[in-house]
From TrEMBL:
PROSITE patterns: EF_HAND_1. One of its GO terms (molecular function) is calcium ion binding. It comes from the Bacteria. Transmembrane segments: none annotated. It holds the Pfam family EF-hand_5. Residues 1-19 form the signal peptide. Keywords: Signal. This is EF-hand domain-containing protein.
C-alpha cells in the first residue's frame, strides 16, 4: 500500500516538479538566484526577492510554480 501511495504521489507531483528541476542545476531541490539567472538572465535580484515569498534565499517548487504562473519566468 505504501509503495502504491508513493507512486501515485510521485505521478501527481511529477508535472509540478518539472519546472524546478530544469532550473535546479545542482539538483538539491532548491533554486538559488544564480541558478535562476543561468536559465533566465533577465531576472534581477528584486525579481528573485519577489519570487522568494518565504524569503529563505532560494525557490522551492511552489515558489517556482507561482513565479511561472505570475509570468516572472519567461523561457
Ligand atoms: Ca539548486
Ligand atoms: Ca523560498
Amino acid at each position: 500500500m505504501k509503495r502504491i501511495a508513493l507512486t501515485l504521489a510521485a505521478t501527481l507531483l511529477g508535472t509540478a516538479a518539472m519546472a524546478a528541476t530544469e532550473v535546479d542545476a545542482n539538483g538539491d531541490g532548491m533554486v538559488t538566484i544564480e541558478e535562476v539567472q543561468a536559465t533566465y538572465p533577465e531576472v534581477s535580484a528584486d525579481d528573485f526577492s519577489a519570487m522568494d515569498t518565504n524569503a529563505d534565499g532560494a525557490l522551492d517548487d511552489a515558489e517556482m510554480q507561482a513565479a511561472e504562473a505570475a509570468g516572472l519566468l519567461k523561457s
